[in-house]
Amino acid sequence: QVQVVESGGGLVQTGDSLRLSCVVSGPAFYAMAWFRQAPGKDREFLASISTTGGRIRYGNSVKGRFTISRGNANAKNTADLQTDSLKPEDTAVYYCAADENPYEFYSPKSYDFWGQGTQVTVSS
Across residues 68-92, what is the average pLDDT? Predict the structure, then answer.
């Protein structure tokens, strides 16, 4: 059974930073991604990273402010999301997703395994 667990959310002020962490427990080696969903909106792609960490992609709304990274060889199925220069519009539930071979890195439908989400709230 595959489990995905996120951590690191919280309440911050405009301009602050947060580091979100994701750990996947499972039998394989997974590509990982971060999405977010604000109330009344669709789930939005933020960033993805391949199994080796060699291919990284970002959504347009966070490019230049957010950075995704994988753990080292001893923590292969982990992925952090460093979020900088946070704005009130970044307020959402942030989800980590994993899949052995996502066919469309930006699409939530490509990922089989999801965490419960962690709330990020940015006050003005």
Answer: 92
Token pair listed for 65: 């402010």
Please provide the size of the chain in residues: 124
Dihedral sign, CA of 41, 34, 11, 82? negative
Longest dimension (CA), the chain: 43
| Phi and psi, residue 31, nearest 5° | -70, 150
Cβ(37)–Cβ(43) under 8 Å?
A: yes
Q: Where are the beta strands (DSSP E) in the chain?
A: 3-7, 10-13, 18-25, 31-37, 44-49, 56-58, 66-70, 78-83, 92-99, 113-114, 118-123
- The average pLDDT across 78-106 equals 97
Name the nearest CA neighbour of 94 among 75, 79, 81, 105: 81
